[in-house]
Design goal:
It is a single chain. The protein folds into two domains: 123 residues, no CATH class; 46 residues, no CATH class. The chain is 25% helix and 7% strand. It is built from six helices and three strands. Strands 1-3-2 form a three-stranded mixed beta sheet.
Length: 193
């Protein structure tokens, strides 16, 4: 199983199995990285420009792991392990989110499968090969890092996670509740005299 630089598991053997489409892929199949960041990798940008900026993976023999600028980050809507949806409390800036971003690939290789990218002579990665993240609820995140729980386990949300979600839903419903102006600004006759 892949590991973090500190040696804790990330919950997958191959991050690319859970990775989605590239963040740089446009709706018409072109590479946004080559269009917007040509100065960062001129050789890559030239090759994409020669192919009308089409995504490298659009070519039949390529996979996401073959692109040097592949990146797949989470949308943060629900836990990929247990399905717990995020409920953000906008008016409570101190409220901790239910979901956290979980990295499936780390600087330093951290596992048997580094894909052969960015390795120096010592076998250590010189830089991260690709950024691949998913959303995990706080409870699943802790289980994945502190045990051998896997990201692709078929599990239900933890009881504490469900309680936290229901608490947020009730607070959200209270915010949407209708109260007339007379109820909101009701002043007793004692205050008016």
């Amino acid at each position: 199983m892949e590991k973090t630089p500190k040696g804790t598991p990330v919950g997958v053997d191959d991050p690319y199995e859970l990775a989605g489409r590239c963040d740089h892929l446009t709706g018409d199949g072109r590479c946004r990285y080559a269009l917007s960041h040509a100065g960062n990798d001129p050789e890559f940008a030239r090759a994409r420009r020669a192919d009308d900026y089409r995504c490298l993976v659009g070519e039949t023999a390529c996979e996401w792991r073959d692109c040097p600028h592949y990146r797949s980050t989470t949308d943060g809507r629900e836990c990929v392990r247990c399905g717990l949806p995020e409920i953000r409390m906008a008016h409570q800036s101190s409220a901790r989110p239910l979901l956290e971003e979980h990295h499936l690939s780390y600087h330093g290789g951290g596992g048997e499968r580094s894909g052969g990218r960015g390795n120096d002579a010592n076998g250590d990665d010189a830089e991260p090969s690709h950024e691949i993240t998913v959303s995990l609820c706080r409870w699943c995140h802790a289980k994945v890092h502190k045990s051998f729980a896997r990201v692709d386990d078929d599990v239900n949300p933890d009881a504490e996670a469900l309680a936290a979600r229901e608490q947020r839903r009730s607070e959200e419903q209270a915010e949407f509740g209708f109260r007339s102006a007379s109820e909101r600004f009701d002043r007793t006759s004692d205050e008016r005299s």
